[in-house]
Amino acid sequence: MVSEGDRPRVPSGTTLRFASLVLLAVATTLQIFGHYAATWPVTTSFDEARCQVRSGLYLTTTYAVDPDESKWAAYRACMAPFLVPRGFWILGGLALLAAVALLIYFLRPRWRIFRRGLVPAPEELHETLAALVAEAGLAKAPVFLLEPTALREGGTAFGNHRRKYVSLNAGMLSVHRDKPETFRAIVLHELAHVRADVTVTYATLAVWRAFVVVVLSPYVLTLINPWLLSRTPWKVPVVLTPGYFTLSLGSRLAVMVLLVFLARVAVLRAREKYADVLVVRWTGDQDPYRLLPARSWYRRWFGHHPAPAARSTAMRDPDSLLRPGFWEVLTCALAVQIAWWHSTTGLRNLGWYHEGNESFLVMRIVWVVPAAALIGLVAWRGAAGEVRRGTFLVPGLAIGTGLVLGDQLDAYSRNEFSVQGVLASAALTGTAVLVTVWAGHCATLVRNRGQAWLLGLSIPLVVYSLLSWFPEVRAVEAVWRNNIVPVFDLLAGYASSTVDAVALQAVSLPFLLNFNRVLTVVALALVWLVPLVLRREFPREAVIAGAAGGVLAAVAVVLLGNIDPPLVATAWQIVAVVGVEVLLVLTAARHLDRVGALLATWLTGLVATAAIWLTHLDGTEVDSVLASRPLQVLPVLGTLAALLGGFAHVSRPRHPSRPWFAVAAAVLGVAMVAWQPGATSASASMQPPAPTSTELNTDDAVNTWIYGGGWDRMMTVVRANDQVFVGVRASDPAAILRGCENLIPALREEFPEPPSAVIAEQWRTALADLETAARSCVAVYRDGRTDDGSTWTAFSSGLGQLGKVQTGLTEAQKRALS
């Protein structure tokens, strides 16, 4: 924690980085032990694949949701028995990580004392050290030790929450005699660590070492050779197999390890800056280490201490430690996104994370918690120091960039380029910047604990509604293809021209993406309401502008109400309202800031919604489904319009008072979106018929079929067929007959066909030809029928088709794993 004078204590960068490290370590443990749970032992490692094959539900990278509920029911019933045993794997992995980390944390001080031969500090230092402990304000003095073999000036603070130590190098004895001010600065630096961060530092090192020992090393070994996951791992074959390890997986694994390592280094470097600031405060010297020799270039770049320039900046400007830096926040955002993906991967291996229960909602909330906490901490720390241009903009850009990169750097991301993915990434980054700037601006307005609670509760809701649409950027192309395009195709049938179709699509896109209209409207209301409440301001100009805009919007709605069909009329009415909002905020830019512009467009949207309802009344209902829910669209488009106009504002008059009108407008808007008039049964629908089939990634599905028992099924046929030819090679009629009789039931065994139409046809042909050959063989060798050559012709044809099946399966698997 950081405290400057009368400022409130705020979480330090060390705390933030430590949280990132723990988050990554825990989530990666979930992923890797989930992998163990799903793959140990190897002989029973493909339970999920078997359940997919048996149920006919192939979960491929197209992210398509199969509409056949019977398949989902069969799949869940098949996976249910694995929930508990796999759960023990994951809980065991977390428990093992925690146990090893705690063991290292408590034993490492003793090990350091033993390994370095540390001895008690000599009596000549006792009086000086006691004075420095009092100067540092420590209630309990650490144990001072001396490292006899270290002749360089310096020291190290270490220990845990129970007992802390300060080890001084033997070279400090001469420094104490010849350069007392330097001795004082060095010891105070170590005492600053004792006071602020020894516990966090050595917990960081313990977590890192436990992660390497418990999680990383075994995982890499099992990727290189899956035989280690067999029931007899001590009998590793002489020739190792490549296992699951690929270049793509290896590169992502390297990035993940590097990220965890950098989080560890970042903790250790950040702590040095905070200790330096305390030394400057205690000594009053802006350069307390000037008499120390310079460190080598290697230690400057790769050591645990930051570069001299960075340390000097922190000592000259302590506020720089409060301003969240780009790389610091980027690393934390990467940790949030990668940790979320690792967690979902582990829970998917557990068999719990799937559609049909509340797991998607739960994991969405799980994503929101660290994302909102990160944005809240950025706002808190930035507002505690001197707010400059870019104080919140740069961290917001880092958050958006980190979330996008984290989605791509996950170990199982396919990294497939798509225009929709690029646009969604840009939308995620832009939204993250806006939300962070908003949270930071609001944090600068907080004056008491009640206001802090208001902002603290608002940030998660805003993040949930506005940012958690994009925790899976990789699925955007599938969402566009499977959900948006069918609706656009349906809407094209209502449009009489290309222009009408464009208007319908432009309005329907936020309609379709806004899956929870009430929470979204609440969040958008909080964006302008929270600053107004914190400023205790009544934005008179915004209310006047909103009323004027509402009148113009109502007129536009009435003029466009006669367009046919009603769905197209509603689309054009909404387009006209947004046009009025853009014109409004640009015209009034000299009198409205961004918050006032948001309120003005909100009020315009409320009036326009009432006008749309009235112009589409058909008895007690409206005549268009879009007309019944314009507030699912207008707040989103109005917010964009207000932001566009807000960039041009020049000044803003202030009218301090209680913003009761703004609160009432927000409540009215939420009530209007929660309640909506019904649409007539004949109204135009915006939902296409439910699909009757699912678009699969055939290669992925074939790969699942192979691991789910398909390859074993084919090998059963191959082995049964081989028994026939063992008899042929031995010229043993009895053996040939036994082989043919055993081949028939092997061919008739019930098993789903390969999920590729081409391979499935080859598979059916192979089985039919081989069964024809086996029946003919039995007739010849048991019943004495004369063989006219058709038996071996059928065998040849069946084996040829079986060879094509094997080739097709192998090629599909290579494409799926590439």
3D architecture notes:
The chain has helices spanning 13-39, 47-55, 69-79, 83-116, 126-135, 172-178, 180-196, 198-224, 247-283, 297-302, 308-316, 326-350, 359-384, 393-409, 419-445, 449-466, 476-492, 498-513, 517-535, 540-559, 566-587, 594-615, 625-628, 634-646, 660-674, 698-729, 733-748, 757-781, 790-817; strands spanning 119-120, 143-147, 155-159, 164-169, 617-618, 621-624, 679-684. The protein is mainly alpha-helical and 818 residues long. Strands 1-2-4-3 form a four-stranded mixed β-sheet, sandwiched between helices. A three-stranded mixed β-sheet has the order 5-6-7. The longest helix has 37 residues, at 247-283. Mean pLDDT is 82; it is low at 1-8.
Secondary structure topology:
Layout: H1 13-39, H2 47-55, H3 69-79, H4 83-116, E1 119-120, H5 126-135, E2 143-147, E3 155-159, E4 164-169, H6 172-178, H7 180-196, H8 198-224, H9 247-283, H10 297-302, H11 308-316, H12 326-350, H13 359-384, H14 393-409, H15 419-445, H16 449-466, H17 476-492, H18 498-513, H19 517-535, H20 540-559, H21 566-587, H22 594-615, E5 617-618, E6 621-624, H23 625-628, H24 634-646, H25 660-674, E7 679-684, H26 698-729, H27 733-748, H28 757-781, H29 790-817
Parallel strand pairs: 2-4, 6-7
Antiparallel strand pairs: 1-2, 3-4, 5-6
Helix pairs in contact: 1-4, 1-8, 1-9, 1-12, 2-3, 2-26, 4-8, 5-7, 6-7, 7-9, 8-9, 9-11, 9-12, 12-13, 12-14, 13-15, 13-16, 14-15, 15-16, 15-19, 16-19, 17-18, 18-21, 19-22, 19-25, 20-21, 20-22, 21-22, 21-24, 22-24, 22-25, 26-27, 26-29, 27-28, 28-29
